[in-house]
Amino acid sequence: MKNWIIGAFLVLAVAAAYYYFAIYQQAGPEVVIKAPEAAEEAVTVPEEPTKQPGLTTTSETGLPPVTPPETEQIPLPMLTESDGVALETLGNLVSESDTARFFVSENVIPRMVATVDLLGSRKIPGAVQAVHGPETPFMAVANDQPETIVRNEEGDEIPQFYIDPSNYERYTPYVEMLEGAETAQLVESYRSHYPLFQEAYRQMGYSEGDFNVRLAEMIEELLSTPDVSGPLELVKPEAFYLFADPRLESLSAGQKILLRMGSENRARVKSKLMEIRDAL
């Protein structure tokens, strides 16, 4: 059995599941949120990268030109018949138990490609995710004495919270699984079986461009996630949580994922992403 699951997917797709299952279950109404003034000096938010349609690109973050990987002439399954091979190969890479626990069993590669592509957007629909979310619910602690009162458009006070530090432990099994995947093997397998990923990318409606370019952009996007110290403040205008700082709330889905998993897990994921970037 040839290993052909993309290494970056094990980082990006696992991370993407956090976004949907950790806090947001559905989109909510627009609210006007006044962030605490102190937060404005604590965070520098990077500009969202521009998606390029061509086969090579240089991003605003200084990303060097990206060329589609060379592929070996090896037999590949049809994309529509690739789920069995994908799951078996994942079992060889991260263990059968982790595959059954964390990964979906249908449309694995198309979901993987869609997940990577949508990391730069504001939301990742649950229907496209290739990884199941944490088994325990998201945890937040009420902020009963906030420094600044936050109000909605109608002038009503909005409840405020902090992310419970114990919440970060929900993501540790995912991070450990990522770290256990051998980077060189994953990246080499990706290059050998790249046509399947490119085919799935085409089926998403991209008549031009290359999935490898998008992958490189999303890796750089996640690596540029700001490192925020101290408790992360939240507001809850409806049935879901938002970051109290509107600049954090305006980050991409992928960057918010890394913020929510805590500084230690974020550093470990970034380290793995840098390994994959350098290998690619």
Which properties best describe this structure?
about 280 residues, elongated, 11 helices, disordered N terminus, mainly alpha
What does this structure look like?
It is a single chain. The protein has 280 residues and is mainly alpha-helical. A hairpin with a 6-residue loop joins strand 3 (233-235) and strand 4 (242-243). The chain is elongated, with a radius of gyration of 19 Å. Mean pLDDT is 77; it is low at 1-61. The protein contains 11 helices and 4 strands. It has one domain.
Physical arrangement of strands within the biggest beta sheet: 1-2-3-4
Mean pLDDT: 77
Strand content: under 5%
Count of strand segments: 4
Radius of gyration: 19 Å
Q: What is the end-to-end distance?
A: 22 Å
Low-confidence region ranges: 1-61
Largest sheet: 4 strands, antiparallel
The domain tally reads 1
User: Helicity level, as a percent range?
Assistant: 40-55%
| N-to-C SSE string, H for helix and E for strand | HHHHEEHHHHEEHHH
| DSSP helical segment count | 11
User: Strand pairing plus helix content: what structural class?
Assistant: mainly alpha
Query: How would the global form be characterised?
Result: elongated
Compact overview of the structure:
The chain has 280 residues and is mostly helical. It has one domain (7-37, 49-137, 168-227, 254-279).
Helix and strand arrangement:
Layout: H1 7-22, H2 83-94, H3 96-102, H4 108-118, E1 140-142, E2 160-163, H5 172-180, H6 183-192, H7 194-203, H8 211-223, E3 233-235, E4 242-243, H9 246-249, H10 253-260, H11 263-279
Antiparallel strand pairs: 1-2, 2-3, 3-4
